[in-house]
Write the structure tokens for this entry.
Amino acid sequence: MYGFLIALGLLLLVSIIWMVYRLQTLVSVMKESEKSKTQATIKNSGSNKVNAVLFLVFLLAAGFLFFWYSFKEFDNYQLPIASEHGAVTDNLFWITTAVTGVIFILTHILLFWFSYRYQYQEDKRAAYYPDNNKLEIIWTLVPALVLTVLVISGWRAWKDITAPAPENAHVVEILGYQFAWEARYAGKDNQLGAFDYRLINATNSRGIDFTDANSLDDFEANKIVIPVGEPVLFKIRARDVLHSVFAPHMRLKMDAVPGMPTRFWFVPTKTTAEMRDETGNPEFEYEIACTEVCGRGHFSMKKIIEVVSPAEYQKWFAEQTPFIVQNPDLIADLPADLKEVAEIIIKENK
Amino acid sequence: MAVVNTSTQGAHAHEVHDEHHDNFITKYIFTTDHKMIGKQFLVTGIFWALIGGFLSILFRLQLGFPEMDMSFLRPLLGGWIDETGSLDQNFYLALVTMHGTIMVFFVLTAGLSGTFSNYLIPLQIGARDMASGFMNMLSYWFFFLSGVIMFSSLFLATGPAGGGWVIYPPLSALEQAIPGSGMGMTLWLIAMVFFIASTLMGGINYITTVINLRTKGMTFARLPLTIWSFFLTAVIGLLSFPVLFAAALLLVFDRSFGTSFYLADIYIGGEALPHTGGSPVLFQHLFWFLGHPEVYIVLLPALGITSEVIATNSRKPIFGYKAMIISMLGITILSFVVWAHHMFVSGMNPFLGSIFMFLTLIIAVPSAVKVFNYLTTLWRGNLIFTPAMLFAIGLVSFFISGGLTGIFLGNSAIDIQLHDTYFVVAHFHLVMGSASFFGLMCGVYHWFPKMFGRMMDNKLGYVHFWLTFVGVYLVFFPMHYIGIAGFPRRYYSWTNFDFASGYADLNMFVSVAAIITFTGQFIFLFNFFYSMYKGRVAPLNPWRSNTLEWTTPLHPGHGNWPGEIPAVYRWPYDYSKPGSKEDFIPQTVPLSSTPESNLPHEEEMVSLEKAIMAEEGQVLVANEAK
Ligand code: HEM
Ligand SMILES: [Cu+2]
Ligand SMILES: [Cu+2]
């Protein structure tokens, strides 16, 4: 690393020396003549040719680097896909890459080739070619058509992804706060209990309203465990500032907004174990990161998702204990009828 | 007759100007001369570019060399470097925020539009000055004041604003959430209020000047594309900046007066805040209603400058002059209806997402047309690679590279993954940051001889170009890969995550490239300031260009032309016209004097032109009689 700094210092030094050198030549040229370096002199100078050639060199070198690196690194920047819609959006991504890639390369070849080919020549004169409506129409319509195809396929994917979640989706609530995530499961009724931010306190960090019967079987989890191949609905909210749930392998991202719960549903396609095999990384875990700046700890809001088989999921699910079991104080102030229900649940879980 | 009247008034105004002598203060500081105001914007813009660039070097050090001992920066950053020699995490965010704010607003809005709209509009349309010189002066000084306030926020004990340049609440509203949202954010908001006022005063001036003060014969269809772009930029600014003002004002209310426009259901620092019913998403809508047009505010002037420079140095008319104008008009209008593409995953209704996806991809069409027109202008030209020309070609390259990735991001399905990753950083740095920056450089190299009466050194210009061009690609192109790999932006470090633990080498590479590129800008600085005093004296029309500014004296006084303002008889792109001996025919050359090169429809206009010239003759006689 210090090597880099030293190299940098050297570079600075060289450029300063070189500047001083130029300074001298500039001064001497000034003294010699008032002859101006204008367009007239540039066009016949060697510089014009050098620049033209450099454009070609740049085209070739940059083009080579681009292809070489893109292929060499493919497996590193291409994250394995672990959700059903992820396959769709990735497909769109690569189709768009192909289309734009062709345009990218063609236009750059033209740009730099023209720069080289049409460099100034004494005996030539530029063509007077001010317009051509037919051409303009063609290159308005063709991009418009290509874009329409891209948009429509994107729109269809988007419509499916954002459609309401299936009835049977497993509901998980993710709450973002500075600087971590908390997960809550809906329990056996698959209904999350209501919440109110004014109820938040040290024992009830999510502000769950336990006077809502749906809350009584809700439980928390350190890891977000979900079954492979079944729809999962993330209900997302935030306690303080904006956050954003980003599960890169699931191709999932949705902001967590205080005061406005959001949602994202998906179907995971690979268990964590399968992914460990596929990536050859025995430590592999699905991660959730935060992608909306939220303060100093923004870069450290990690949560693990564990994708398991449906059977394992059922087993795990059955083993979890609701909030009220872990902390019976939570039901202290409940009305009598609810309290009874709650006490039955506590008993069942013992 | 109205046209003629304007010009006689202009002549009177000018005589008045000759009578008083400018002292130092009225000439260099509180000047109302648009040329000096343009230069003030330029020099201030360069100052801010250095600050903004330097901040990016600081956070690039952190990203490229996360383990580095930064104690050597302590003399500069003081307490922001902790005992172990690492950068404070809040301060990292503050650096990113200030960098973005400075670059977008101070450098590429004020530094670019402020410089060239001011400098070029009167000179290229044939006017003595802006419609209101006084308001123009105020515009600069409001900008200056805004800068002073923003700059002073860098030295606050709690640090400058740190919630990103988009200042999304609640983060930007709550001091408990991040220290920068205290005094730092207050100063940010005050500074931006002055900035908006400055932009509006500038914009009103640009628009009225272009509409009202064009010289005889300078119809809209004969305006150089530079003027068209400055004009439309000003229109965009005038319509969108007030919305930012409103957004900021409501934020001020939320911060200081207990309202709940953007705040709802917040529990922070161990207490539940009383705010309910507000919506953070509302702020995002308001912000991006400016934010997206802002992208075109920084880009359009650069495209206008490029059009002019490419045509001049290809010795060819710009291809598709009308199509260029129509695309710019299209971009202007469409830029107001695409804002929510920044918010696909903000939680807004997905149906809105669909609408904005369609609108966004439409705006790609006029952009594509512009690129094809640039390419065709180069085709069969006779290219002369002045430094300005090189920067113009570089701009076209960045515009393509960055524009194409916009097609990914505008597609809401693809954006789910890419949003707020380094892919976005790569995208906007190429299409907006680097392209506009190259437009700025292109303009400086091209109009330096007019601004200072001297030439910049070409060789230094070439070295500057190649270093910057290659450097920019080395810095920003790799960010695409990092972005596809899912690296989120505004991260202090990525090592907490397994999926983002790779690419330490690439990040190091990017940082080194950034430092070298930044250092390379000192070549330009040297060239700029040295040539200002010691450069070779420029000829009157060094690039053999058609536009009006080159008909002024080497050092135009206040009023620009010593005598009458020249009249205009043709469009600005008569380069290499068949039949003409020279390969350029300035706009001031009447069609009647170039029968050898006139096109059939131009022949018809010759008689009309003669009538106008006769009228002009009468006015001259009348003036002399007085
Ligand atoms: C020296 C050249 C530059 C370098 C090395 C650089 C680098 C960066 C990097 C790495 C980030 C992301 C930081 C993060 O997300 O953690 C960033 C953000 C940004 N940059 Fe630059 N940049 C440069 C020039 C520019 C220019 C010319 C512009 C003008 C448009 C610009 C505008 C922005 C904006 C708007 C942001 C977003 C700030 C935010 O997230 O709030 N940058 N820059
Ligand atoms: Cu965050
Ligand atoms: Cu936008």
Q: What stands out?
A: Residues 170-348 of chain A form a domain with the Immunoglobulin-like fold (CATH 2.60.40.420). Chain A touches chain B through 128 residues (CB under 8 Å). Residues 32-37 of chain A have pLDDT under 50 and may be disordered. Residues B 53, 56, 60, 96-97, 99-100, 103-104, 108, 164-166, 425, 429, 432-433, 437, 475, 489-491, 514, 518 surround protoporphyrin IX containing FE (ligand 1) (CB under 6 Å).
